[in-house]
Design brief:
The chain is mainly β and 115 residues long. It contains 1 helix and 6 strands, in the order αββββββ.
């Protein structure tokens, strides 16, 4: 007796990736802001993609050529008002604006502390 099984490898890979995303406890990445020579305040919004919004969030930046950020912080926002805080809002301010075209990387990490 033989059994033939057809497996869609692409679909299987999608399912595995979906499951890994759903089960992960940490998300991280970076965003870039670009100076124009006059803007000193930037706000960037990032979807964290985690299954819980009970998170601890950290943000950091690369040193700029113009001046280091005077403050940098992140907080969670419920953009669609459904009770789940799916968006990380990153705020950065410079005393002296990054020069025109200067790119500043802002690194972020969100960790689930309670499910």
């Amino acid at each position: 007796m033989s059994i033939n099984v057809n497996i869609d490898v692409g679909k299987l890979a999608e399912l595995v990736e979906e499951r890994l995303k759903r089960d992960r406890k940490v998300a991280s990445g970076y965003v870039e802001v670009t100076g124009d020579g006059s803007t000193t305040k930037f706000e960037v919004r990032v979807k964290h993609g985690l299954k819980s919004d009970k998170l601890v969030v950290s943000v950091s930046s690369t040193r700029t050529l113009s001046s280091p950020p005077s403050y940098l912080y992140g907080y969670l926002d419920d953009e669609d008002n459904d009770g789940f805080y799916e968006t990380l809002v990153i705020c950065v301010r410079f005393d002296t604006a990054p020069s025109s075209g200067e790119k500043v990387k802002i690194f972020w990490e969100a960790k689930i502390v309670e499910e």
